[in-house]
Amino acid sequence: MTALHAAYAALHAAAPAPAPGLPLAHGVGSRHDLPLSPFYAYAGAFAALLVSFLALGLLWSSSRFRGDLAGRPLPAALQRAADAPALRTALRLLGSAAALLFLLHLLLGPDDPDRNPAPGALYVLLWVGLVPASLLLGPVWRLLNPLRALLSLHPPRSPRPVPAAVGIRPAAAGLLLFTWLELVVPRNTSSSTLLAALAVHVGVQLLGAARHGDRWFAHADPFEVYSSLLARLSPLGRRADGRLVLRSPFHGLDATPQTPGLVATVCVLLGSTAYDGLSDNPRWITALQTSPLGPTPTATLGLLAVVALAAACYGLCAGALRLLNRTLTTPLTSFAHSLLPIAVGYLVAH
Predict the structure, then answer these.
(1) Is the separation of the CB atoms in 287 and 298 below 8 Å?
(2) Would you call 31 helix, strand, or coil by DSSP?
(3) d(Cα 311, Cα 270) in Å, to the nearest integer?
(4) pLDDT, tens digit, for every residue of 208-256?
(5) What would you report as the CA-atom Rg of the chain, rounded to the nearest whole angstrom?
(6) Cα(303)–Cα(176) distance, rounded to whole angstroms?
(7) Which of 110, 170, 179, 284 is the most exposed place for a label (fewest CB within 10 A)?
(8) Segment 30-79, tens digit of pLDDT
(9) Closest Cα partner for 205 from 196, 195, 193, 215?
(10) Spatial distance between the Cα atoms of 348 and 88, rounded to a whole number of angstroms
């Protein structure tokens, strides 16, 4: 985790000083004034990344945490209250009411983010607010998800199981599209843009749920998967027997399922946050303005490149582990959950 922290910090340290008069979009301090050559910044960061992965794989190849077997049980009365159908129904109604209010603001409100709260509700209350809510309370979006409430009105009669090979890959794609909407798409706060994005999201989710039932959301809803992964670091969790417990966040992290798409999801979270920090770099802004492809295609390629770079670094380190220790047969996803605290750290920082 320290190594990826170094890689991310190097990305900012290697950036040049902003041009006079150019407003900064992130942070309150100066992060562009370190007297460090970009070459040495990147070389040191990637060397640290490689060394830490090698140390983790060779010196600590088996987990020392207890996963979903750990935790101190909470009082039975608190467990009954948390599992009460009335509470779950109230939370589902709350999520549905918030979604309806969001839709009404998009349809009837002014097309001005300064006077319409809908864009802020999406990009701040939902995207940013899910971080502390999930870290403190667990996978809250699963309980608030208005699409689950909508599906419960007409559930499919014979839902098919989601194939194991699908994993959470649909959610990884959804997260990438959402970050593209947030960081790249021009006029991403306009009502027409948000309505189009909402229509695509709802259409894809309900089509999948019509075939696979509510299990589909745990695989494909980007906000539900996002919240569930963050909740792995919550002190509140459930043991394998379903008991509500207090636990070390690292036990919850250790219980993260090694499902297909986990690496892609974590790399999207890391890469999109890195691109978010890079996007206010004066050189990048100049490149967008002068690119023959145009700002939006260039920014799209930049976002994809940074996500791909995060995935390549992870794959490189995992491959090096197998070359150095041929008895190591762990799959590529084995260490992906260890990147979650880094992703959470930079999400909180933003």
Answers:
(1) yes
(2) coil
(3) 9
(4) 999 999 999 999 999 999 999 999 888 888 887 888 888 888 777 877 8
(5) 21
(6) 9
(7) 110
(8) 444 555 565 666 566 667 666 666 666 566 556 666 567 777 888 988 88
(9) 215
(10) 27
Give the whole-angstrom CA distance, residue 235 versus residue 137: 8
Tokens of 325: 């220790």
Joined together, the tokens standing for residue 30 give: 């100066």
> Which single residue is written with the structure tokens 């060779």?
58
**How many Cβ atoms are within 10 Å of 256's Cβ, its own excluded?**
20
Q: How far apart are CA 137 and CA 133, in angstroms?
A: 6
- Joined together, the tokens standing for residue 151 give 């599906």
Residue 248, token pair as written in the block? 């070390």
CA dihedral 146, 149, 153, 154 (to 10 degrees): 80
What are phi and psi for residue 101, nearest 5 degrees? -65, -40
Question: Beta-carbon neighbour count of residue 110 at 10 Å?
Answer: 10
CA distances to 94, 96, 148, 206, 209 from 103, in Å: 14, 11, 17, 17, 21
- Reference 65, options 227, 283, 251; nearest CA is 251
